[in-house]
From TrEMBL, chain A:
Gene: ctaD
Domain Cytochrome oxidase subunit I profile span(s) in chain numbering: 9-522
UniProt KW Nucleotide-binding keyword: no
Record organism: Cytobacillus praedii
Alphabetical list of Pfam families matching this protein: COX1
The protein, known as: Cytochrome c oxidase subunit 1
Gene3D superfamilies named in the record: 1.10.287.70, Cytochrome c oxidase-like, subunit I domain
GO-annotated cellular components: plasma membrane
Annotated pathway: Energy metabolism; oxidative phosphorylation
Location relative to the cell: Cell membrane
Automatic annotation (TrEMBL), chain B:
Residue ranges occupied by any Cytochrome c domain in the UniProt entry: 259-353
GO molecular function term, any single one: heme binding
Protein name per its UniProtKB record: Cytochrome c oxidase subunit 2
Enzyme class: translocase
Organism: Cytobacillus praedii
Residues in Cytochrome oxidase subunit II copper A binding domain copies: 129-246
Main subcellular location: membrane
Gene3D superfamilies assigned: 1.10.287.90, Cupredoxins - blue copper proteins
Automatic annotation (TrEMBL), chain C:
Organism phylogeny: Bacteria, Bacillati, Bacillota, Bacilli, Bacillales
CDD domains, alphabetized: Ubiquinol_oxidase_III (cd02863)
Places the protein is found: Cell membrane
The keyword DNA damage belongs to this UniProt entry's keyword annotation: no
Membrane topology: Multi-pass membrane protein
Keywords: Cell membrane, Membrane, Transmembrane, Transmembrane helix
Segments passing through the bilayer: 28-51, 71-91, 103-121, 141-166, 186-206
Domain Heme-copper oxidase subunit III family profile: start-end pairs: 1-207
GO molecular function: cytochrome-c oxidase activity
CC terms in the record's Gene Ontology section: plasma membrane
Protein name (record): Cytochrome (Ubi)quinol oxidase subunit III
GO biological process: aerobic electron transport chain
Length: 624, 357, 209
């Protein structure tokens, strides 16, 4: 029963990952899959920048360009940023609250496989038909008008992946509410756990509108419904609303965990507790709440009328207040501290000016009357890359360096890490700063080319060079990962030396049951408190006893596979002369339902690690 | 010494002006060179908010630099674990709230100002209004401009009077588009299911007969979204009225004047007139207008929305529209044209003028 | 306390659905899931309200032409009653009366089937009498999507409860399956609440035009 066996063959390892319900292994899966999609999305970005290198360029055709820009956005948001954020949430959050696993290990695995199959389905569009080409926003009139199956891949792929995310959100919420270690009150939770908590709530309420929107689009495109067909009484603005009721919280779903990671980093490498912890918590909750009140600022030019535009403008600008609170709290966490410039800290320090830049342009965009000029120009492109790259991607890089030892037991090379940082940081600002001006000078976004003589040439060259610098930075990171993995030098519990939260009290990587005995938490920065009192580790809150563990399961994979199959049926059934579509759709759905049925009727009580085995572990040292 | 200082100051301003003008884009296209009331108000708001934001960034920058310089790790001492500071936290909560409020007031007032279209709603007994109204119908990669009060239709080139408010009704006939003339003001979407209304104004001092304002589509609408441009010609009221009268005077298709053009007209009447009208009346219902109205094609400054207006470009466009505007609706609606036919059509189309030389 | 332990009336706890950590997690997780479902249905309601009576031709049926209160009222009463019978079932679960719980759940399933049958008849009626179909207008799409999503939820709930009844028929109640029963009944109540809103927003408000 035990998954504790060491030195297994390659096949056994693969099978282990296919069936694992361990949050730490699922974190690996999210990291690898999200990383791959990040590279694909990055490649698409490079093609975009090559095309825009000079006016009237013909590197790619107009149609292919639209596919690239759509897939770049969709991949980066749904298949790269979200899963990478989920990777760190899975890897770290249960450790931070002193839990043995997440609340629903089975669902955790299901969430991952749904995401992966959804992502695969979406990306298969490149090979099977044409990729979606209506932008990541896929506005209804355009997406309904598209022939071919590109948009179908989008609608069905995101539906499957989105389901996985929703499941993940519920899982994290329950984990945080029910499974905190003794003494871990809400106001002692590390900032990253807090942001995970708020983000999970956002996911719970933001994804259903997307689900509905995607269903309506699927029904319109594949089953003859008329939600978005104006001639049949439909209304495309419904899609815009649903998309942004989801889409705006989605932005916070990405950025709040980034805030969480940076909050950890500032505290660790300044050797100081987070300044204004309670106001940080308050600001996080407030940002999450306001995130639902501002979606229509993406639709200022849609024609909702001056009253709606004014309300949403003011609400949007109000978000600057809690965000400002955070910026100042970070600065004053460092103030009076003892700052060590490790790679994660470099990313965190660079994040402040970069994100601030995106924040202030956000306020300008929120001011509706100005937005009429900025809307759908390169100014917007610059703005959201400043927040998403300067915020989220910086955090992902920082988190990767910070948590690499906790996830894999080895440290990424610091020198290569700093090279990655410099290349990416310089490239990032080169690429996107100038784009503010391109927008102001009259260059709309999502254009496959521009004409000579409008003054766009030099700036676009600068922007494209920057993109290649970013790519170079990512390549150095990949080299770093390979070198580190080959060397495989194991590190101890607290490799950075200044860890403050519970995860640093465990070995790197932690044993599969996490805590042998649940720790007693005596305050914020629980591990730091013990360290300052000269203790080596946490005080246990319970006597050593048997540990109840969940069984591995292949069913999550099968449930997801069923939906993957069904999606093909749904997509192709409307083709002329197609006879297999409906049977495949029904087969896939039955396959999923059948897998769920098996899961339901087969009792699964998990297993227990006997006390004796845990005592043995003490002698041998903790193993992976 | 004093003169030197003055000279320095002057050269500093000269450089600054140079940098600023390099940074403000093309006068016919840039939002930073406003050429009308709406754009001007938006530009002022931009400048105002930018200054405010730079002030905020300066405060952050100062603290940021002090922190990074002063608090590097020098020894192994554990710093004081500060929990927070209520006074400071209140300061950086209240000041941003005030800043937001200061920005909110002009924002809201401008939003309502830009949405004020009462003048176009005031209808006379015959259903017309005193204000100048243009119905903008956006189509896959071309624009139609209908003047409902004047009862004329044109396409691709918007002609408006300067120094007065021009009101727009915006709608799309296929997919969503967005109507944007950066130099004149912000954009508004052409939706498929409802009419959006707003106004713009064009400044006579900024209107340049050689460099017409550039308009564009700002909402992704398909492969040729990037090429869905149009031109805006802003004329003094008298010239505008003259143009309207000239247009209105054309009741029947103009007859070609040369032999070559006559051949062209025959081809046109056989292959093109099904979609392209050459009279400006708006008798055909909007849905049935499949392609740009060509009544004043010879007067225009662009071909296919973005190509320079010359015979060569016209021939290229007619012989292979797909290359010039991928995904357009004209490709494949007529057979291949011989060089002779192209010459004839070109001669005919270039002769379609209402303004005279 | 082991989850599969044979229980008696004496050892059966007052809140059998929340005895283990797994059960507590399931209980909370399901409530959260219902929160998400609420947003899902809210979105569908919004779509319906936006597209209500939105038809391409004036001769097509509108809400006020279609709906007949007696039938829908009967459906409402059936579903409300089924909610009540599932409450009885949960009452008997708390009292460790397995047989009665199974019987009441059985009645719930029968009522649910009756509801579904009537709904199918209703849809059929609209399609054949009025030509009001999923593809005939935006109104049709929105109506069938909203009510159909609810119907699909009913069907799924029926499958779920039936599976529970059959799966556990031989082994009786324990702390492993008690939370499963409890959560299924929660789901059933949720479906009922959604229907109350459909009855009000779609049918009653549809009648008044």
């Amino acid at each position: 029963m035990s998954t504790n066996a060491q030195k297994r063959g390659f096949g056994a390892t693969i099978w282990d990952y296919l069936t694992t319900v361990d949050h730490k292994k699922i974190a690996h899966l999210y990291l690898i899959a999200g990383g791959l999609f990040f590279l694909i999305g990055g490649l698409e970005a490079l093609f975009i920048r090559i095309q825009l290198l000079k006016p009237n360029n013909d590197f790619v055709s107009a149609g292919l360009f639209n596919e690239l820009l759509t897939m770049h956005g969709t991949t980066m948001i749904f298949l790269a940023a979200m899963p990478l954020v989920f990777a760190f949430m899975n890897a770290v959050m249960p450790l931070q609250i002193g839990a043995r696993d997440v609340a629903f290990p089975f669902l955790n695995s299901l969430g991952f496989w749904l995401f992966l199959f959804g992502g695969l389905f979406l990306n298969l569009s490149w090979f099977l038909d044409a990729a979606p080409n209506a932008g990541w926003t896929s506005y209804a009139s355009l997406s309904i008008a598209q022939t071919g199956h590109g948009i179908d891949f989008y609608a069905l792929g995101l539906q499957i992946a989105g389901l996985g995310t929703l499941i993940g959100g519920i899982n994290f919420l329950v984990t945080i509410i029910n499974m905190r270690a003794p003494g871990m009150t809400y106001m002692r939770m590390p900032m990253f756990t807090w942001t995970t908590f708020v983000v999970s709530a956002l996911i719970l309420f933001a994804f259903p509108p997307l689900t509905v929107g995607l269903f309506l689009m699927t029904f319109d495109r594949m089953f003859g419904a008329n939600f978005f067909d104006a001639a049949m009484g439909g209304n495309t603005i419904i899609w815009e609303h649903f998309f942004w009721i989801f889409g705006h919280p989605e932005v916070y779903i990405l950025i709040l965990p980034a805030f969480g990671i940076f909050s950890e980093i500032f505290a660790i490498f300044s050797r100081k507790r987070l300044f204004g912890y309670s106001s940080m918590v308050f600001a996080t909750v407030l940002i999450g709440f306001l995130g639902f009140m501002v979606w229509a600022h993406h639709m200022f030019t849609t024609g909702l009328g001056p009253i709606a535009n004014s309300i949403f403008a003011v609400a949007t600008m109000a978000i600057a207040v809690p965000t400002g609170i955070k910026i100042f709290n970070w600065l004053f966490t460092m103030w009076g501290g003892s700052i060590r410039f490790t790679t994660p800290m470099l990313w965190a320090v660079a994040f402040i000016p970069s994100f601030l830049m995106g924040g202030v342009t956000g306020v300008m965009l929120g001011s509706a009357a100005q937005d009429y000029q900025y809307h759908d120009t390169y100014f917007v492109v610059a703005h959201f890359h400043y927040v998403i790259v300067g915020g989220v991607v910086f955090a992902l890089f920082a988190g990767a360096h910070l948590y690499w030892p906790k996830m894999f037991g080895t440290m990424l090379n610091e020198v290569l890490g700093k090279i990655t940082f410099v290349l990416f940081f310089v490239g990032f600002h080169m690429t996107f700063f100038i784009q503010h001006f391109l927008g102001l000078w009259g260059m709309p976004r999502r254009v496959f080319t521009y004409l000579p003589g409008q003054g766009f040439e030099t700036s676009n060259v600068v922007s494209s060079i920057g993109a290649f610098l970013m790519a170079a930075g990512v390549i150095v990171l990949l080299i770093n990962v390979v070198i580190t993995s080959v060397k495989n030098e194991k590190v101890g519990n607290d490799p950075w030396g200044d860890g403050r939260t519970l995860e640093w009290a465990l070995s790197s990587p932690p044993p599969y049951y996490n805590f042998k005995q649940l720790p007693l938490v005596r305050g914020l920065d629980a591990y730091w408190i013990e360290k300052m009192e000269g203790k080596k580790g946490m005080t246990p809150a319970e006597p050593l006893g048997d540990i109840h563990m969940p069984n591995n399961s292949f069913i999550p994979f099968l449930i997801s596979l069923g939906l993957f199959i069904a999606a093909f049926g749904a997509m192709y059934h409307g083709d002329e002369g197609n006879t297999w579509g409906i049977p495949v759709l029904i087969f896939g759905l039955l396959f999923t339902l059948g897998s769920m049925f098996v899961r339901s009727i087969k009792d699964d009580h998990g297993y227990h690690i006997p006390k004796e085995e845990l005592i043995d572990d003490n002698d041998k040292g903790v193993k992976a | 010494m004093k003169r030197l200082a003055k000279w320095r100051l002057v050269s500093l301003f000269a450089i600054l002006t140079l940098v600023l003008s390099a940074c403000s884009g093309q006068p016919y296209l840039s939002t930073l060179q406003p050429a009308g009331e709406v754009a001007k108000k938006q530009y002022d708001l931009m400048v105002f908010s930018t200054i405010m934001m730079i002030a905020v960034m300066a405060v952050v920058a100062v603290i940021f630099i002090i922190v990074l310089v002063k608090f590097r790790r020098k020894d192994d001492k554990i710093p004081n674990q500060v929990e927070g500071n209520h006074a400071m936290e209140i300061i950086w909560t209240v000041i941003p709230i005030l800043l937001v409020l200061v920005l909110a007031v002009p924002t809201v007032s401008a939003v309502f100002n830009f949405a004020d279209v009462d003048a176009m709603e005031k209808k006379n007994e015959d259903g017309t209004s005193d204000a100048l109204v243009v119905n903008v119908r956006a189509n896959l990669y071309w624009w139609e401009f209908e003047y409902p009060n004047e009862k004329i239709v044109t396409g691709q080139e918007l002609i408006v009077p300067t120094d007065e408010k021009v009101y727009f009704n915006l709608i799309a006939s296929d997919v969503k588009h967005s109507f944007w003339i950066p130099a004149a003001g912000g954009k508004m979407d052409n939706n498929t299911e409802n009419v959006n209304k707003f106004w713009l104004e064009f400044d006579s001092k900024k209107a340049d007969p050689d460099k017409l304002f550039q308009g564009r589509c700002a909402e992704l609408c398909g492969p040729s979204h990037a090429l869905m441009d149009f031109k805006v010609k802003a004329l003094p009221r008298a010239e505008f009225d003259q143009w309207v009268t000239n247009m209105q005077n054309i009741k029947e298709p103009q007859d070609a004047t040369t032999d070559l053009a006559q051949q062209g007209q025959e081809i046109f009447n056989k292959s093109c007139i099904g979609c392209h009208a050459v009279t400006p009346s708006n008798g055909t219902p909007a849905d049935a207008r499949m392609a740009p109205n060509l009544t004043n094609f010879g007067d225009r400054n662009i071909i296919a929305g973005y190509l320079e207006h010359n015979e060569e470009n016209l021939k290229n466009w007619l012989s292979d529209p797909e290359t010039y505007k991928p995904g357009n609706k004209m490709t494949g609606t007529y057979g291949e044209l011989t060089p002779e036919q192209l010459d004839a059509l070109t001669a005919y189309l270039m002769g379609l003028k209402v303004q005279g030389e | 306390m082991h989850v599969e332990e044979k229980m008696t009336v004496e050892t059966w706890p007052a809140a059998p659905e929340k005895q283990t950590l797994e059960a507590k997690n399931k209980f909370l997780g399901f409530w959260l899931f219902l929160g998400g479902e609420t947003v899902l249905f809210a979105s569908l309601f919004a779509t319906y309200l936006a597209l209500k009576d939105s038809v391409p031709r004036s001769d097509m049926p509108l809400a006020k032409d279609l709906f007949e209160i007696p039938l829908v009222f009967a459906m409402t009463m059936i579903l409300l009653t089924s909610s009540l019978t599932s409450v009885y079932a949960m009452y008997h679960m708390k009292n460790f009366n397995f047989k009665k719980m199974q019987v009441w759940l059985g009645i719930t399933v029968v009522l649910g089937l009756a509801f579904l049958g009537l709904e199918i008849y209703e849809f059929n009626h609209y399609v054949h009498e009025f030509g009001h179909t999923f593809t005939s207008s935006a109104f049709g799409s929105a109506f069938y999507t909203l009510v159909g999503f609810h119907g699909a939820h009913v069907a799924f709930g029926l499958l779920w409860i039936t599976t529970l009844i059959i799966r556990n028929s031989k082994r009786g109640l324990n702390l492993y399956n008690a939370p499963k029963y409890y959560v299924a009944s929660l789901y059933w109540h949720f479906i009922d609440v959604v229907w109350v809103f459909i009855f009000t927003v779609v049918y009653l408000m549809g009648m008044v035009g």
